[in-house]
Write a structure and sequence with these properties.
Blueprint (H helix, E strand, L loop, with lengths): L3 E6 L10 H9 L2 E7 L5 H5 L9 E7 L10 H23 L4 E5 L9 H8 L4 E5 L4 H9 L10 E5 L4 H10 L2 E5 L5 H10 L6 E5 L7 E4 L12 E5 L7
Parallel strand pairs: 1-4, 1-5, 2-3, 2-4, 6-7
Antiparallel strand pairs: 7-10, 8-9, 8-10
Helix pairs in contact: 3-4, 6-7
């Protein structure tokens, strides 16, 4: 019988926030796969330090490109498409020998993560199952100490990679906001928040639930770029009893 490929959500970064099922699969699996940038250890792999079997076999899936070329460049999708196909082939080969494989996923596997691109390729030929997890944005708004939504608030999740007009429109329509994938897009995100009239309520959360976690008004942050694990929140102000 073929083995199962498990896409295992590790949660926002603190190992204590992993589910019981995720913990069991990670500790028991002989084959562990994870994404990482070339030359880096990988955040997902770091989360499970000290949890793996002594005889574990690791498969590091190293992105061929991250921010070196723009998303609009056809070479970007071409490189990543080939990369995901190669990863799929390797994982399916392991499954065909009867071996189970755990693919480590930061946050939830089905929420803006790399595993989604593997899943759509694996599901046609392999037995693939997903273990859900706490998302990074959930950890962020809990770290802020303020409920993200009230009553009938509309919550929108927007990507800093969008163009400024689209960002402004989405921010204007929403009552509460989660802004992700910011990085070097921070100046554009600031302008969109100002255009939407939400700058004064914007809160920056860095490394939610991880070592180095910080929470502060966005207005107090003066740099032009943000680290990868950064989320901007605008809390809703809706109906309450």
């Amino acid at each position: 019988m073929n083995g199962v490929i498990h896409g295992v959500g590790l949660g926002p970064g603190d190992p204590d926030l992993m589910s019981v099922r995720a913990d069991r699969l990670v500790r028991g699996s002989k084959h562990i796969a994870f994404f990482r940038k070339l030359g880096r250890k990988g955040r997902a792999r770091s989360i499970v330090n000290g949890m793996l079997r002594e005889d574990v076999i690791e498969f590091a899936m190293e992105y061929p490109v991250t921010t070196e070329i723009p998303l609009s460049d056809p070479r970007y999708n071409e490189a990543l498409s080939g990369f995901y196909e190669d990863c799929k082939t390797h994982l399916c080969a392991l499954s065909a020998t009867g071996e189970d494989v755990v693919v480590l996923c930061e946050g939830d596997p089905f929420f803006y993560g790399s595993f989604m691109h593997l899943f759509t390729r694996l599901q046609a030929t392999c037995d693939v199952q997903v273990v859900p997890a706490i998302t990074g944005m959930s950890a962020a708004w809990n770290a802020s100490g303020v409920p993200i939504t009230w009553g009938d608030d509309i919550l929108s999740t927007v990507m800093g990679t969008l163009d400024e007009a689209t960002l402004t429109d989405a921010m204007t329509r929403a009552d509460a906001l989660v802004v992700m994938k910011i990085g070097r897009n921070l100046p554009k995100v600031r302008r969109a928040l100002a255009n939407a009239g939400k700058s004064d309520r914007a809160v920056l959360v860095e490394y939610a639930s991880m070592e180095g976690q910080t929470v502060r008004p966005l207005s107090e942050f003066t740099s032009e770029t943000l680290p990868y694990f950064s989320i901007i929140l605008v809390h809703g102000q809706g109906r309450r009893p």
